[in-house]
Design goal:
4 helices, 10% strand, globular, Glutamate--tRNA ligase, Rossmann fold, protein biosynthesis, mainly alpha, glutamate-tRNA ligase activity, 52% helix, ATP binding, single chain, Rossmann-like_a/b/a_fold
Length: 121
């Protein structure tokens, strides 16, 4: 079995201790099993992602000595491929379009949050 792990932070701020811990665990697991450790920057939230945050994450990973085995992938640059695969899946009947409006989706999120809060009480 080939082990491949990845760390996929969103570049909306500095690399924080929780992210560093996750990256470290994934890195060590891959190395322990003679696998690969990959870095994918989740920059699809274009409104909040910044080049400065991306640079800070890369610098933090370097400072920690967590070097990925391949060049980091910028998720947004893969958007065309994701669209292509999604369309192939729709054509095969293994994925379906969502026709809910943004308002309907928000109402579902709100209901889910209410249920989550009620379960905590």
């Amino acid at each position: 079995m080939n082990v491949i792990t990845r760390f996929a932070p969103s570049p909306t701020g500095m690399l924080h201790i929780g992210g560093a811990r996750t990256a470290l665990f994934n890195y060590l697991f891959a190395k322990r099993h003679n696998g690969k450790f990959l870095l994918r920057i989740e920059d699809t939230d274009r409104a909040r992602s910044t080049d400065e945050a991306t640079a800070a994450i890369l610098e933090g990973m370097d400072w920690l000595g967590l070097t990925p085995d391949e060049a980091p992938v910028m998720q947004f640059s893969q958007a065309a491929r994701h669209t292509e695969v999604a369309n192939e899946m729709i054509a095969r009947g293994t994925a379906f379009r969502c026709y809910a409006t943004p308002e309907e989706l928000q109402a579902r999120r709100d209901l889910g949050e209410e249920k989550r809060q009620a379960a905590k009480a």
